[in-house]
């Protein structure tokens, strides 16, 4: 058998047989690595600070280089994968991620560690959209794809929540560089497996790749995320270091959108945003992360600084959230078919808001049962919302644009997370600082320093000592808990706003009847291609016309409309994915 036929058989099996679930396992392990690396370093910061002695600026870049670079390059590599092959980009991302992990683990200077973290961000930006776009290609049946996306989003939650636990264990028993070495055995396994098992898929490949547009998008997202992160760190909004990146990033993104609208072969088809389901799904992802990521950061501070838990104990306390997210992902496909995207996203937001309001009962003392119940509801509600939003967004995009759509979803996730830290961090600071004023025996400069954070307030109180130090310590604890309660109310309001936004989503999960013609499989056996729809996203014949009947998309006449059967198996391209060509 020729190489072409072997590759075609592998792709055909992945797209239509049991091996697609093996492909899902490989993709989930890939995503797990990226999600772990986003949070595993947090608990290692004190240890590496003591070892490498970085400046405050260098330490900030050690922590932020990975998410900044990763977020800025998602659109670039997502759309590049549509052109040159998603599997090819993914395998290169594996290699870069492994090399960068070794360099980071063995770094002896802050500069080397910053460079390694940036390279990790490049690898992560290659891996993240590729996993989701390959998943879109190998699961043409929307019912099965919903199950796969549920597993995919659950793995992302597992990785993010497991990072601090695993990192805490490794730092306590080894050294800070071990948090990077855990990537090496997984990469040694996943790289040959990915090369052997993963199918190659591309978009239409029409026209040249817009290199200038890709660089504009990368620079625009980098500026926007950097500015948002500076706001979250408490920098004044009108300074050059904060407003400059924000304004430049916003201007570049506006120019990028205008450029894509004018081009005959854009990187991202902006007509996707004319579909209410796609735009609403992206907005729900942003709003969900906006409400909760900053809150999660504050909750970690509460567990460590108010309840006095160690990093490892803090990670263990957050495990119920992870298990609940796993349960939501496992049952998401069934729930989506039963109640539809609108109710699933809306009620997910409502459940998450209820969990946030329940956590308002947190106080100065540990209440393990309350925290466990709150985290379970929080994890289940958030995962339900994100799962349905991702599924709706991806199902609205044609296979040929899967990389660009996945990049939009991941970029929305990153922007929402950054804005959440900035917004909720500002709310927390505004509610926390006034509680430290007017303390007897505490100098004004000590009060000002203590207002920066609870950790710094503890240090100032220890230096003061005596009754003044004790009063500052106690006042800071009360002010932090009060600020946490205010932040929880703001977060709940944002989540309820998301529930209202979800009313624009379709009421039911629509799937077209399976009418895929037999010659597609025959063509795959001969040419090594798993059918035009499975690889390029192109439909031929009457299926392409019938595929256009969806919410928010131009419909053909009634005679050409495919029958809608909720929960039924669909053809290689789901209903609503066909779009007019430039």
What layout of secondary structure does this protein have?
Blueprint: H1 3-16, H2 19-39, H3 45-52, H4 56-84, H5 86-105, H6 110-138, H7 142-173, H8 178-181, H9 183-197, H10 211-232, H11 240-262, H12 276-306, H13 311-317, H14 319-358, H15 368-396, H16 402-432, H17 444-450, H18 454-464, H19 466-501, H20 519-527, H21 532-535, H22 542-546
Helix pairs in contact: 1-2, 1-20, 2-6, 2-7, 2-9, 4-5, 4-6, 4-10, 4-16, 5-6, 5-9, 6-7, 6-16, 7-13, 7-14, 7-15, 10-11, 10-16, 12-15, 12-16, 12-19, 14-15, 14-19, 16-19, 17-18, 18-19
Describe the structure.
There is one protein chain. It is built from 22 helices and no strands. It has helices at about 5-15, 20-40, 45-50, 55-85, 85-105, 110-140, 140-175, 180, 185-195, 210-230, 240-260, 275-305, 310-315, 320-360, 370-395, 400-430, 445-450, 455-465, 465-500, 520-525, 530-535, 540-545. Helix 4 runs antiparallel to helix 5 (about 85-105). The chain folds into two domains: about 20-200, MFS general substrate transporter like domains (Growth Hormone, Chain: A); about 270-510, MFS general substrate transporter like domains (Growth Hormone, Chain: A), CATH 1.20.1250.20. It is globular and about 70 Å long. The protein is mostly helical.
List keywords for this structure.
582 residues, mainly alpha, Growth Hormone, Chain: A, 22 helices, 73% helix, disordered N terminus, disordered C terminus, Transporter, cell membrane, transmembrane transporter activity
> What is the level-2 CATH architecture name of the largest domain?
Up-down Bundle
- Spell the H/E element sequence: HHHHHHHHHHHHHHHHHHHHHH
Q: What's the level 1 CATH class of the largest domain?
A: Mainly Alpha
Q: Which structural category fits the helices and strands?
A: mainly alpha
Oligomer: single chain
Strand elements, count = 0
Overall number of structural domains: 2
């Amino acid at each position: 058998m020729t190489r072409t036929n072997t590759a075609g058989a592998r792709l055909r099996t992945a797209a239509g047989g049991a091996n697609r679930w093996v492909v899902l396992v490989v993709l989930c392990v890939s995503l797990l690595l990226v999600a772990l690396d986003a949070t595993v370093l947090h608990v290692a910061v004190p240890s590496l600070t003591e070892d490498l002695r970085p400046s405050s600026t260098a330490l900030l870049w050690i922590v932020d280089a990975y998410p900044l670079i990763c977020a800025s390059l998602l659109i670039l590599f997502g759309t590049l994968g549509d052109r040159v092959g998603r599997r090819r980009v993914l395998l290169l991302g594996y290699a870069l991620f492994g090399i960068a992990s070794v360099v980071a683990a063995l770094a002896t200077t802050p500069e080397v560690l910053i460079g390694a973290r940036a390279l990790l961000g490049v690898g992560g930006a290659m891996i993240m959209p590729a996993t989701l776009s390959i998943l879109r290609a190998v699961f043409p049946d929307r019912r099965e794809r919903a199950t796969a996306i549920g597993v995919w989003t659950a793995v992302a939650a597992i990785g993010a929540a497991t990072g601090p636990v695993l990192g805490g264990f490794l730092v306590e028993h080894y050294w800070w560089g071990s948090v990077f070495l855990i990537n090496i055995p997984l990469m040694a396994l996943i790289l040959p497996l990915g090369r052997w098992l993963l199918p190659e898929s591309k978009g239409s490949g029409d026209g040249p790749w817009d290199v200038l547009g890709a660089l504009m998008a990368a620079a625009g997202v980098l500026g926007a995320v950097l500015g948002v992160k500076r706001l979250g760190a408490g920098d004044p909004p009108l300074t050059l270091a904060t407003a400059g990146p924000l304004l430049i990033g916003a201007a570049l993104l506006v120019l990028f959108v205008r450029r894509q609208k004018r081009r005959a072969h854009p990187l991202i088809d902006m007509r996707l945003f004319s579909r209410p389901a796609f735009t609403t799904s992206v907005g729900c992802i942003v709003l969900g992360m906006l409400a909760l990521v900053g809150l999660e950061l504050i909750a970690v501070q509460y567990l460590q600084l108010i309840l006095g838990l160690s990093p490892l104990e803090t990670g263990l306390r957050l495990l119920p959230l992870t298990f609940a997210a796993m349960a939501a992902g496992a049952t998401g496909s069934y729930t989506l078919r039963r109640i539809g995207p609108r109710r699933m996203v809306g009620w997910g937001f409502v459940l998450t808001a209820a969990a946030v309001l329940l956590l308002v009962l947190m106080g100065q003392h540990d209440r393990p049962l309350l925290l466990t119940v709150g985290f379970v509801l929080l994890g289940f509600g958030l995962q339900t919302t994100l799962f349905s939003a991702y599924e709706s967004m991806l199902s609205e995009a044609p296979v040929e644009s899967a990389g660009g759509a996945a990049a939009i979803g991941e970029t929305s996730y990153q922007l929402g997370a950054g804005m959440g830290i900035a917004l909720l961090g500002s709310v927390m600071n505004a509610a926390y600082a006034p509680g430290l004023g007017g303390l007897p025996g505490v100098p004004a400069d000590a009060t000002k320093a203590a207002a920066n954070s609870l950790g710094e307030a503890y240090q100032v109180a220890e230096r003061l000592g005596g009754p003044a130090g004790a009063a500052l310590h106690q006042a800071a604890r009360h002010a932090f808990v009060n600020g946490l309660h205010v932040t929880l109310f703001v977060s709940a309001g944002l989540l309820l706003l998301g529930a209202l936004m979800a009313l624009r989503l379709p009421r039911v999960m629509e799937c077209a009847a399976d009418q895929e013609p037999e010659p597609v499989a025959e063509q795959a056996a001969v040419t090594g291609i798993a059918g035009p729809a499975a690889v390029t996203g192109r439909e031929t014949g009457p299926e392409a016309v019938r595929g256009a009947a969806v919410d928010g998309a131009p419909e053909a006449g009634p005679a050409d409309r495919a029958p809608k059967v909720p929960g039924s198996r669909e053809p290689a391209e789901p209903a609503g994915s066909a779009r007019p060509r430039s």
